[in-house]
Amino acid sequence: MATPYGLGPGFSRDPIPHWGTPTNYGALQRENISQRFPSTCEWVLASKEYRDWLHGQDHTLFCPGEPGVGKTILAAAVIQDLQGLDGPMIGVAYIYFSTLQAGEQDLQNLVFNLLKQLVPGLRVIPFYLEKMIDGKHEIPSVRQILEALHATVKLYSQVFVVLDALDECQAGSRTALLREILVLQSMFQTKIFLTSRFDPDIITFDALILQIRAHEADLRRFAAGKLFLLLSLIEGVTNVHEEILSKVVESANGNFLLGKLHLDSLLSQRSSQGLQSAFAKLSSGPEAHKRAYDNAMERITSQSRERVDLARRVLAWLSRTRCQLTIIEVQDALATELGSSNVYQDNLPQAVDIVLACCGLV
Q: Same domain for 130 and 91?
């Protein structure tokens, strides 16, 4: 298995200082993989392009796709698959890019994070890394980090690097990172998996290309699981399960985000008449996302005054933050009061109330 071998005596499991790199990509991976619906993404892992990249001579697999088709969950599934490979000294490192963290995701932080993920799997500490650890109170330069990264990758028989949402990385940092990765590929056994929106500036070197689109079978599994509970709660509609399922999949048109918005609209109903009305409003086409979001906002504003206020506060926090927040961080933020940084436990909303108030937008 591609698991860490452990460092020599006297070294901790995480010997590298943090040096101002706040993003915990391991936590993001756990969060993203938890959102993967059972048996989805298998079509990519079984595709000829993925198998050729994994076992063949091609070093880069580029997976472009429109917003909302599930690229990030797919990247999480690929990371999980790579981490389960059999073989000695297989390293896996990954970056989840986000426009919210664009200022932090410069070349120095990016290559440092790759290094930090690969070091725990080493049997020995490379010389360049020892020098960095000895000077742990001084932030190393990009050149020093790259030297340590090269020395680290050299000790692996194969390294896989997964870069998700590369289009959300600032152009300068993206160009610099891809340049350094090409250097790694030219010197060591390094393979790269990329996801991005369609952008001609993203990929300028030879790569296998596999276009990402929400697979119909994946959409059906996802929608069927969500609809089962709803249809069991509302009397007289169990016989239209297949009709509703087919309409959701068809109107989603290969887009997980749109499918989720449609499902959230249906899941908010508690009567046969309400379900039929929401079903009739399901739309597809260029304006489908806007109409689905407008529908969600209508559902938010039709709630009690307390829930409307809660939803607005949640959305205000999430739209203004510079990083992704966990549900606990959102709860803490909502429990503060103007002019104070204290978290008042009596003000702490329940996670389920936050999710329900936002009608599927969170």
A: yes
Q: Distances from the Cα of 90 to the Cαs of 24, 45, 143, in angstroms?
A: 21, 18, 25
Residue 8 lies in a domain: no
| Measured distance CA(330)–CA(193) in Å, rounded | 32
Alpha carbon distance 163, 72 (integer Å): 10
Alpha-carbon gap, residue 53 to 322, rounded angstroms: 35
For 45-87, the pLDDT digits (tens) are 999 999 999 999 989 999 999 888 889 999 999 999 999 998 8
For the chain, what is the domain count?
Answer: 3
Expressed as residue numbers, the domain containing 361 is 303-362
Residue whose pair of structure tokens reads 């000829």 in the numeric block:
48
266: confidence class by pLDDT, cuts 50, 70, 90: confident
Please tell me the pTM assigned to this model: 0.75
d(CA 95, CA 28): 9
Q: Whole-angstrom Cα distance, residue 311 to residue 301?
A: 9
Do 53 and 156 reside in the same domain of the chain? Answer: yes
Q: Are 238 and 232 in contact (CB under 8 A)?
A: yes
* Tens digit of each residue's pLDDT (9 = 90 or more) over 113-140: 999 999 988 887 777 777 776 655 577 8
**β-pair partners for 60:** 192
Residue closest to 168 by CA, chosen among 260, 104, 257, 254: 104
Buried-exposed string 247-271: b where 16+ CB fall within 10 A, e elsewhere: bbbebbebbbbbbbbbbbbbbbbee
User: What pLDDT is recorded for position 260?
Assistant: 83
Same domain, 233 and 340: no
Residue 60 domain-assigned? Answer: yes
Q: Is residue 2 part of a domain?
A: no
In a domain, residue 4? The reply is: no
